[in-house]
Amino acid sequence: MEISQPSLSTAIKDLEKEFHITLLERNRHGISFTPAGLEFLHFANRIISQTGQLCDHFNLGVAPHCKLQLSLSGQHYMFTIDALTRYIQSIPAEKKYSISLREGRTSQVIQDVITLQSQIGILFTSYMTKQFLHTLFTKNDLEFIELCRFTPSVYINKNHPLAECGELSIAQLKTYPYIRFEQGQDSRQFSEEIMIPDIKSEQSIYVTDRSALFSIISATDAYTIGTGQLHPSISGQHICSIPLKSPVDMMTVGWIKLKNIVLPREALLFMNKLSTSLAPYK
């Protein structure tokens, strides 16, 4: 849609007058949104998205051969990749589609859903983070739907000195490198790994992607802690998971979406595939 500069300026002034706010400010660096302008943009994006979803839901003006769209954000879970693969395999060959999966820090997953970059966000809560995260969900009109609960497990190389143990304690792990996902400036409540207060490793490795994490574990004595769920096609053949002994916390994996938003059919179909991927662990 094209619009002339004078018409755009008039439209902005009309909005500012109607809502009694200032949307844009001008300075020596150019034009930028005011805090109120950014908030207004956030609400406007949600309204536009909901309107589009309403049309899609009732097929208003949508041809049956139209391109389906699915947008996801999540922490670095193998079951998400497995579910997405199953979903893509189920799409008819002639169907046009656009699918995006953004993996990253917990705060990024939440922000993606709030700003409608993603329809669904996949993450976990624990006893230690539940109150903080659910308060954040409520504040931002998000709902959390539980999928599965996991007892934390340790991921190590199959040739690791501890690989034959039936379960592992934190004391047994203290002399080995601990590898985890880098969390930037996020607080510990956003951690992608379960918080274990007793872990005090003198050797720490931080990565930003799953491939690097599994490659390092496969080639060294490093370990990480997660759900314990494995897909050899994703993690490789050289990694095993061993339950953590006497864990003080549990991982409740679930998904978030904005309240009062009707998910499109493709998102619901993906959630069915996600439930299938998690079924063996429930």
UniProtKB/TrEMBL annotation:
GO cellular component: protein-DNA complex
Domain HTH lysR-type: 1-34
InterPro entries listed in its UniProt record: LysR_HTH_N (IPR000847), LysR_subst-bd (IPR005119), WH-like_DNA-bd_sf (IPR036388), WH_DNA-bd_sf (IPR036390)
Keyword entries, A-Z: DNA-binding, Transcription, Transcription regulation
GO molecular function: DNA binding; DNA-binding transcription factor activity
SUPFAM superfamilies given in the database record: Periplasmic binding protein-like II, Winged helix' DNA-binding domain
Keyword Transcription regulation found: yes
PANTHER family given in the database record: HCA OPERON TRANSCRIPTIONAL ACTIVATOR HCAR, TRANSCRIPTIONAL DUAL REGULATOR HCAR-RELATED
Similarity remark: Belongs to the LysR transcriptional regulatory family.
Protein name per Swiss-Prot or TrEMBL: Transcriptional regulator
Organism from which the protein derives: Megasphaera cerevisiae DSM 20462
